[in-house]
Amino acid sequence: MTALDPRPVAATEGARRLKATVRAYIALTKPRIIELLLVTTIPAMILAAGGLPSLGTVAATLVAGSLAAGSANALNCFLDRDIDQRMRRTERRPLPAAAVTPREALVFGVALGVVATATMFLTTNALATALTVAAILFYVLVYTLVLKRRTPQNIVWGGAAGCAPALIGWAAVTGSLGWAPLVLFLVVFFWTPPHYWPLSMRFRDDYQAAGVPMLPVVAADRVVTRRIVVYSWAMVAASLALWPVASMGPLYAATAVGTGALFLVEAHRLDLRARRGSHGPALRPMRLFHGSITYLTVLFVAVGIDPLLFG
Predict the structure, then answer these.
(1) What is the pTM of this model?
(2) b (16+ CB within 10 A) / e for 226-238
(3) Is-contact 131 193, C-beta < 8 A?
(4) Do 114 and 67 contact (CB within 8 A), yes or no?
(5) Is the pLDDT of residue 75 over 70?
(6) Is 224 exposed, middle or buried (0-12, 13-18, 19+ CB in 10 A)?
(7) Most buried one in 10, 113, 233, 297, CB count within 10 A?
(8) Out of 3.20.20.70, 1.20.120.430, 3.40.190.10, 1.10.357.140, which CATH number does the structure's domain 26-176 have?
(9) The dihedral of CA 88, 94, 100, 104: what is its sign?
(10) What is d(CA 296, CA 293) in angstroms, rounded to the nearest whole number?
(11) pLDDT tens, position by position, 76-95
């Protein structure tokens, strides 16, 4: 081998391309969203079991759930590639950046969905599998294809797909559903608008350029923040309802009250700034967006820990 031998250079270039391709496929699954979904799955399983569930069931549910969420997100990227090209926030995603082709993204998304469904069916039960398939189809067909481009209520009803992990986790452990998982579903359902609308306010110009009728695009800031406050109160009420419904202990009760109060304070502050005429950076909607992630994480950690201490 001589100094002019091109093979080392070709091997390095091939490894670089492979790494970039792997990163692109991972990006199609939107890993950050998957992380948030798993935050609601594990605590629901612990609550359903009244303690630690089978580690095999937990592992299988998390793997299948991650694959299912990745499938839905990859298919969302495939269907929304025209929108993503027109938005600064999403223009670097794999499809607009031509890191993968539309056909590759479609095949990848469908394959993940098939593997997720088979894994859930073989390792858990029929109800958990049906809920998993329903969540994928609802997110792709109902939210992405219909709601997102047609109504400012898109994230309200489309967000139901993101609530499914709590139901799936519960069903994977018990093979059934009940009032407690329904309340967990409602907590995430009411949480979604106060979580996503602040982000939409921050990137309003992007959504407007892409022709997506997010509420902040079609309504004044004061209208958006007032609805954020309403949904925030509904979310906190649902979180408190879990206390008697699931016979939760003092740790959960204190967490739900404390985190709920902090969330409401921030939601009302955002509304107050909007009513005073603040706009743009002065409105600071991302404070609530980031705070909402912390809220959901802390609340569901309490859902998982409380049964271990007081169950």
Answers:
(1) 0.91
(2) ebbbebbbbbbeb
(3) no
(4) no
(5) yes
(6) buried
(7) 113
(8) 1.10.357.140
(9) negative
(10) 5
(11) 999 999 999 988 888 889 99
